[in-house]
Amino acid sequence: MKSVYHLHLTDDQIEGAKIALLPGDPARVEKIAKTAPLERARFLASKREFTTWLSYIGQTPVLTTSTGIGGPSTAIAVEELAQLGVRLFIRVGTTGAIQPSINIGDVVITTGAVRLEGASTHYAPLEYPAVADYEIVRALLRAAQMLGIPHHVGITCSSDTFYPGQERYDTFSGHVPRHLRGSLEEWRRLNVLNYEMEAATLFVICSALGLRAGCVAGVAAQRTRSESVALDQLQMSEENAIRVATKAVEMLVALAAEK
């Protein structure tokens, strides 16, 4: 029996699951695991920021495991799930949009990520691209279309920090280091869609290790209008991302069955 330390899981517990949904927030895991078409959800383990539930689509087991915030803890989750046999990962998160055409509650489906983080450099040099698996992107896009959820497909900026790295001034000091001032406008002009904190790490690790990854995030802040998270609409943003992710998993399971 194979066991992993940080996730507090064993390979027999996950029943041969090859797919994992990865929210950041442990409190979101149960909700995802119980969202149709996932069914028969049950709790497996919780340790530190890592909480795991197991669900099924038909007879196919699907894990939902929280990663916590940022690249280092995401790297641990992906590494240990891969050791247990998981091969396909979809991040299900929230995000701040930096393009004015993107609204609160829309979802962003990431094709590639700016590596404004450090964890991925422990797997590949900065010249190595952070890109999503094309079949997962296609499934996420098709899911959003079928569900009628407004969506945007493109490049995400993954930052190690929520405040200075995303050029937020609503902080304790109000100070952003000189090399990051103007960065939000720079990324916006380069047609980057949004900021979040995990996609680049996830994509680089999975590509480097021969795994597959995707990312969908619900827009919870519109940074061209306000630096604040829209708390009154946060639940809608989360639910839209969750619905797209679970529907995409259903499609990927059906595709695998056809091969």
Q: What are its keywords?
A:
259 residues; alpha/beta; Rossmann fold; five-stranded mixed barrel; 29% helix
Structure description:
- The chain is of the alpha/beta class and 259 residues long.
- It has one domain (3-258): 3-Layer(aba) Sandwich (Rossmann fold), CATH 3.40.50.1580.
- It is built from 6 helices and 11 strands.
- It has a 5-stranded mixed β-barrel, surrounded by 4 helices.
- Strand 8, helix 3 (134-147) and strand 9 (151-159) form a beta-alpha-beta unit.
- Helix 3 (134-147) packs across helix 6.
- The protein is globular and about 50 Å long.
- 49% of the residues are buried.
- The mean pLDDT is 97.
Distance between the termini: 29 Å
What's the story with the biggest beta sheet?
5 strands, mixed, barrel
Counted beta strands: 11
Q: Unreliable stretches, pLDDT < 50, 5 or more residues? A: none
SS field, number of helical segments: 6
Q: What proportion strand?
A: 25-35%
Q: Give the C-alpha Rg.
A: 17 Å
Structural class: alpha/beta
CATH class annotation: Alpha Beta
Query: Can you write the helix and strand succession as a string?
Result: EEEHEEEHEEHEHEHEH
As a percent range, the share of helical residues equals 25-40%
* Count of domains: 1
Principal-axes shape call: globular
Here the CATH topology equals Rossmann fold
Strand order of the largest sheet: 7-10-9-8-11
* CATH homologous superfamily designation: Nucleoside phosphorylase domain
CATH architecture: 3-Layer(aba) Sandwich
Rounded mean pLDDT is 97
